[in-house]
Design brief:
The complex is a heterodimer. By secondary structure, chain A is of the alpha+beta class. Chain A has eight helices and 16 strands. In chain A, about 15% of the residues lie in helices and about 20% in strands. Chain B is built from seven helices and 32 strands. The chains are: A alpha+beta, B mainly beta.
Chain lengths: ~400, ~500
């Protein structure tokens, strides 16, 4: 079994300045990160052996009990055999930074799927940590500063009975995460583009996790991962030796089998917040690809075949062709279970301001806002992308007369 | 005559009264005016109490919730405590909400397939619908309770108030019993209120009884895309729609009070494209009165949304087959006591091509085999209004020889079918068993804008309005009672209810 040695992460340089009370936590539920050094008692594991048995069977009280990471304070690096990854365009989660790792049992690999999430073997663990930056202009988690505050780490574990999601919520000091199946509402502040926003960040409960992580084949309703699909992973990541294609890296590391030549693999273009300034320079084709990528990763797990909102008729998978599937993209389509009041169609080509899809992204009223879960603030850059996309679409029957 | 439905221009002509057709009758019409809505005393916007006239057997019901092995939730930390109990729900669990008024911070979700095998037999109860009040006005979530993927779930003895979206939603449940439960949005009717109160959808074996629903901006009780349904002994007031059965089969709606809503009782079948279409609904023994509240639903382009409901309407059947409406008391409605209509009223272009795929999916815009009989109907039509039927109001009120009726049947779909215009979708002339029949409704007048016996033309149905008391006088076979199975026990009129009128078991 692992043994834990208490270790202070405090460096001597930090010690010199830490005396003035650089503590980052306000002690309440609110995460109040600010720049400056932090004093933490972290525990570093001597053993690098992941607690696989527990992962397969038990929901342990503390994240560190599974020994997935070297430090109890840092789920963003030094994973015990886990491979870090990123998505070309991430799902928006209230401007948090996300740190993802995938852990596979020794000698096993996931099977490549062209469109769907990879087929991971039983025993697979995916960790995803959400950290709130004090200011989105300064990202990057460092346990010795308060640039970002850890909020939650979600474990997706492929057990014998299927996938489960276990939410772990970090304490205010960021020294340990505790199992909270019921999730948690966290009063949060952040600065984005120079403006401070206050909102409630919702760590979903386990049943809420499944509302997005859900696939219904008509008979049964099963839990599935969302992100690890070929098109989202088909991009570069720096594992320490410069940028490298993630799929190639996974394949060479032996955790992915069946990867075809990369030119056969679909690829969602990257769109990050800093790219919003580039929108005006996008061609219509670039806009279409970027918007479809964004809608795919943010919406299609519900608004897609087998998803909990497939019945609405709005189905936004990246692979779905726009020109032959306009109605599935919401074009001139009336909602099936929603009355907006003034607006008629999900998407009115050329008129984002009268498109329900845009409206529901651009509000935090919880009667109207989409996605239903996991968004407490408006994603300004996402709204800008979708607005530009809708306005770029060729006119259709429901478009305003020119 | 065989018409190509794609070329058949029903749109313009089928408009129940297109502007051209109306030109001759519309002269200086100032509109039907709208009802000031309500007619009932304003309610205290603070706090919640159920109506003083709640039947004694409901109001004074001894609620037993708890007992050995029950899971008692923590009154000091109710959101977390309830979430954990819902997440851990196992077969046979009884989850007990304490007495008191509580602010819940988030949607309480129970997914019975969260951990492998589907959970069955879960009870969620409180100490009474006026004693355990779950207030979601500060919740971060949209729905109040959301329960899904479960068999035999029972809810009683609690109230859910001020949810942002739906109060209690159940989806993919087989076996639902909701009783002695209230869902409430207080204050004046407001489109910002939540959509549905009690909301079982895509479910089967659903029993909703002895409950109270108020203030929904859509339907107070809405059972949709479901089968084997009994909704009885409830009070629905100040909702847009009091009680609605939609795209569902094998349903009984009886002994309810529906009052002060925009529309009292609705039986709808909408083109949802989800392979779930409705038929087989009985509506009987209900007290339906003063449903004159202005329509406060969000407007919408959905042609079948409840925003179309004309204020002051008692009972509406929209594009549903096999409906029997009998022995109801329907009184004091500004507009109509009973409206039976094809979907042409909601969308005149229903045969214009846009609906081809959903018609291929099994939906039909028609009403067939409808029997409205032995209802007590009075004081109807004092101030008919509603945007949907404004043309029809104008037609009846301004055409010499006509008057505004208490009961209406559009007749448009039947006229098209009888003329052979729908042969392209496999629909021939109405036979005796397809007819829409009105009998013995205490002398209430019946009107139609389109006489089913008149021939339609290539342009669409032919306007041929008439009003009388003995129109459409025919009879249909009684529909069978709806029954359902909950926890292995059968429920329904004449099954577990053997004392209500219409449900008595004849002595041997």
């Amino acid at each position: 079994m692992k043994s834990l040695i208490p270790v202070s992460l405090l460096s001597s340089a930090v010690l010199l300045t830490a005396c003035g009370g650089g503590g980052g936590s306000d002690g309440g539920t609110g995460q109040q990160p600010g720049p400056g050094p932090v004093t933490k008692n972290c525990q570093v594991s001597e053993s690098q052996d992941v607690n696989w048995d527990a992962l397969k069977n038990d929901n342990l009280a503390k994240l560190s009990d599974y020994n997935l990471f070297a430090s109890s304070c840092d789920p963003t690096r030094d994973a015990h055999g886990g491979i870090a990854y990123d998505l070309n365009t991430p799902l928006f989660s209230d401007y948090t930074s996300k740190y993802r790792f995938v852990f596979l049992p020794d000698g096993q690999s996931a099977t490549y799927q062209a469109d769907d999430v990879f087929d991971f073997p039983v025993g697979t663990v995916i960790t995803k940590t959400f950290a709130m930056p004090a200011d989105t202009a300064h990202r990057g988690y460092d346990p010795q500063t308060n640039t970002e505050a850890l909020i939650e780490t979600r474990l997706l574990i492929h057990r014998d009975s299927g996938w489960v999601a276990l939410p772990y919520v970090w304490n205010d000091k960021g020294t340990e995460a505790e199992y909270r199946p019921q999730g948690k509402l966290v009063d949060t502040k952040l600065v984005h583009n120079g403006a401070q926003q206050s909102f409630t960040y919702a760590v979903p409960d386990r049943a809420q996790c499944k509302q997005c992580h859900s696939y219904d084949d008509g008979d049964t309703n099963v839990f599935i991962p969302i992100g690890p699909k070929a098109r989202h992973l088909n991009g570069d990541f720096d594992y320490g030796d410069g940028p490298e294609n993630q799929l190639t890296h996974w394949s060479e590391a032996g955790i992915l089998s069946g990867l075809p030549s990369l030119d056969q693999v679909d690829k969602v273009p990257t769109y990050h917040d800093e790219d919003a300034g580039l929108i005006s320079g996008y061609s219509d084709e670039q806009l279409m690809a970027a918007a479809k990528g964004y809608l795919d990763v943010n919406c299609s797990h519900c608004h897609g075949v087998g998803g909990t909102a497939a019945y609405t008729g709005l189905q936004l998978e990246y692979w779905r062709d726009y020109d032959t599937g306009k109605e599935k993209h919401g074009v001139c389509k009336t909602p099936i279970a929603y009355d907006q009041g003034e607006m008629t169609y999900d998407v009115v080509p050329g008129d984002a301001a009268n498109s329900i899809l845009h409206f529901r992204m651009d509000t935090t009223n919880n009667q109207d806002s989409m996605p239903r879960l996991g968004r407490g603030v408006i994603h300004e850059e996402g709204v800008a992308l979708i607005e530009a996309w809708i306005n770029s679409l060729p006119a259709e029957a429901c478009s305003p007369a020119s | 005559m065989k018409l190509d439905k794609n070329k058949f221009v029903i749109g313009r002509a089928a408009s129940i009264l297109a502007p051209a057709a109306l030109a001759m009758v519309v002269t200086g019409c100032g509109g039907g005016g709208s009802s000031s809505g309500g007619g009932a005393p304003a309610q205290d916007p603070v706090g919640y109490q159920y109506p003083q006239d709640m039947p004694a057997d409901v109001a004074q019901k001894e609620i037993a919730c708890g007992g050995e092995g029950a899971i008692e939730l923590d009154a000091n930390n109710l959101t977390d405590s309830a979430k954990i109990a819902f997440l851990d729900a196992q077969d046979g669990d009884v989850i007990v909400f304490p007495e008191g008024t509580f602010k819940l911070q988030d949607t309480l979700t129970l997914d019975g397939e969260l951990s492998g095998n589907r959970v069955a037999d879960v009870t969620i109860c409180g100490q009474g619908m006026d004693k355990t009040i779950l207030d979601f006005s500060d919740s971060a979530g949209d729905d109040g309770l959301f329960i899904t993927n479960i068999d035999d779930v029972e809810i009683y003895g609690l109230a859910v108030t001020e949810a942002a979206n739906n109060a209690i939603k159940l989806q993919h449940a087989n076996g639902v019993r909701i009783h002695y439960t209230a869902t409430v949005w207080q204050g004046e009717p407001d489109k910002g209120n939540g959509a549905y109160g009690l909301y079982p959808v895509e479910s089967s074996n659903v029993l909703v009884e002895n409950s109270y629903v108020r203030g929904s901006a859509d339907a107070g009780i809405y059972v949709g895309q479901s089968d084997s349904i009994v909704v009885r002994n409830n009070i629905a007031e100040y909702n847009v729609a009091g009680i609605e059965i939609e795209n569902s089969t094998n349903a009984d709606m009886y002994n309810n009070i529906a009052r002060y809503n925009t529309g009292g009782l609705l039986v709808f079948d909408l083109p949802i494209g989800n392979d779930k279409y409705g038929s087989g609904v009985r509506v009987f023994g209900n007290e339906v009165y003063e449903n004159n509240t202005k329509n406060f639903a969000n407007s919408s382009s959905n042609p079948g949304g409840v925003h179309i409901v004309p204020p002051g309407t008692g009972v509406i059947v929209l594009s549903t087959d096999d409906v029997e409406i009998f022995d109801n008391t329907v009184e004091k409605h500004d507009t109509l006591a009973v409206a039976v209509t094809s979907f042409l009223l909601a969308d005149e272009n229903v045969f214009g091509g846009d609906y081809d795929s959903v018609i291929a999916d099994g939906w039909l815009p028609l009403v067939r085999n409808i029997h409205v009989h032995d209802n007590t109907i009075s004081e109807t039509g004092a101030a008919p209004n509603g945007a949907l039927i404004q043309d029809m109001i104008t037609l009846f009120t301004l055409t010499p020889g006509l008057e505004w009726p208490a009961l209406i049947y559009d007749g448009a779909g039947e006229q098209l079918a009888n003329t052979g215009a729908l042969a392209g979708i496999g629909i021939g002339a109405y036979e005796a068993g397809d007819k829409v029949c009105f009998q013995n409704n205490s002398g209430a007048t019946i009107g139609y804008p389109y006489d089913p016996a008149t021939a339609a033309t290539m342009e669409g149905p032919t306007l041929s309005p008439a009003v009388g008391t003995d129109f459409l006088d025919c009879s249909q076979e009684p529909l069978p009672a709806a029954t359902l199975t909950f926890k292995g026990e059968m429920f329904g009129c004449v099954v577990d209810d053997t004392t209500s009128e219409h449900c008595e078991v004849a002595p041997l």
